[in-house]
Design brief:
By secondary structure, this protein is of the alpha/beta class. It has 13 helices and four strands. The chain is about 70% helix and about 10% strand. Helix 3 (about 60-80) links the parallel strand 3 (about 50-60) and strand 4. The longest helix is centred in the middle third of the chain and has 39 residues, at about 200-240.
């Protein structure tokens, strides 16, 4: 006895309920067979909410995904809410991948209301904060275990990372720091020349570089250079299942891969910040000599009257904290990367964004704390 062709074909029914409608899919959905058209199925209806169910679907391939994607696009264009919670997780995952590969030029996704969007963003922020806290805790425990048994620390990897994030970063740090000093000197000269305080350009450059700009600009450079490199390296290892192999044989990933990189940045960042301070002062000195006719000796003597060891210590403390933050952000995003080339790229981008955000927050906290302590 042959099956009824109508029962095997792709079918979709619309059940309206006020300003909402439920789309129930059934039958066999195959790309080689005809399937319903969403526009014809909808007709003159204009629902504000569309709910999708596929309980009666027997077999399906990409034809089902294309039909669901067509409904999602219509909801996106009209501002209707597309409820896909009733779909199986596998279909939702494939549908999200299809939507990501067919991005449209619709300027704003209005398929979810404002409260839903705020709620989802809040949940995501809380989840990200938990992930960062958990990762920081793992690194702290791993560092304590390595302090108890230093022989297990991978010194060769740490020295290699020191070379990459320290010596190899000198050219770009030198250029940026010198130009920052030049820019600050030109900007300060505009105001100081109005009041005859040309010599105080040395105070401005000295304090700005050692307390703030040296550490911050070095951190920004390393966030884009080294933090992204950490995320890309670990993300690529995750995509190649190398991290899974380490976990299978019982090797702690944090101690083996993360701590050498974080320690390398924590050591090299203050050294690079001090180097950046010197280059920034040199840039300001060159502008003071060429624009304000201030001799280098006078510039240096005046700068020593305002800059002391407490100012230098402030910049060094910031640099150490910034180095740890960049290393944590880069390694965290690398370990969270998706197992694909696109996921590695997104992890590198996310590492830079996360590091810059945390750097700004940390710098603001340091400013408040140092002000309270009178530093």
């Amino acid at each position: 006895m042959s099956a009824n062709p109508e029962l095997l074909s792709a079918r979709a029914s619309v059940k309206a309920d006020g300003d909402a409608c439920e789309i129930a899919l059934a039958g066999t959905w195959q790309i080689t067979a005809p399937r319903p058209a969403w526009r014809a199925l909808l007709g003159a209806k204009n629902p504000a909410r569309v709910r999708l169910t596929v309980e009666a679907v027997e077999k399906w391939d990409s034809a089902l995904l294309l039909f669901l994607f067509e409904i999602q696009q219509w909801c996106r264009e009209t501002g209707a809410y597309c409820d896909v919670d009733a779909l199986p997780e596998k279909i939702r995952t494939l549908l999200a991948q299809l939507a990501a590969s067919h991005e449209t030029s619709v300027p704003f996704d209005r398929s979810e209301n404002f409260i839903t969007t705020v709620g989802l963003a809040t949940q995501n922020a809380v989840a990200q904060a938990k992930a960062i806290s958990h990762f920081v805790g793992e690194c702290t425990l791993g560092a304590r275990r390595l302090a108890e048994n230093p022989a297990k620390f991978r010194w060769r990897d740490c020295l290699s990372e020191m070379q990459q994030c320290g010596a190899m970063a000198l050219p770009i740090v030198s250029l940026i720091s010198f130009l920052v000093g030049v820019t600050l000197a030109y900007t300060g000269a505009i105001v100081l020349r109005l009041y005859g305080g040309d010599i105080y350009i040395a105070d401005l450059i000295g304090l700005s570089m050692v307390r703030e700009m040296g550490a911050v600009m070095t951190a920004v450079v390393l966030a884009g250079r080294t933090g992204a490199a950490f995320a890309a390296t670990l993300g690529n290892m995750r995509a190649n299942e190398e991290i899974d192999a380490l976990e299978v044989v019982g090797i702690p990933v944090v101690q083996f891969l993360v701590l050498p990189r974080i320690f390398a940045l924590g050591v090299m960042m203050p050294l690079l910040a001090i180097y950046a301070n010197a280059l920034g002062m040199l840039g300001g000195m060159s502008v003071a000599l060429g624009l304000l006719s201030i001799p280098p000796t006078a510039y240096w003597v005046e700068m020593l009257t305002i800059v002391d060891l407490s100012d230098i210590a402030t910049g060094v403390i910031k640099a150490i904290a910034f180095g740890l933050i960049i290393g944590l952000a880069g390694c965290l995003r690398g370990l969270q990367a998706e197992r694909s080339a696109a996921g590695v790229g997104r992890a590198a981008t996310s590492a830079v964004v996360t590091a810059l955000l945390l750097l700004v927050v940390a710098d603001a906290i340091f400013a408040v704390v140092f002000n309270i302590l009178g530093w």
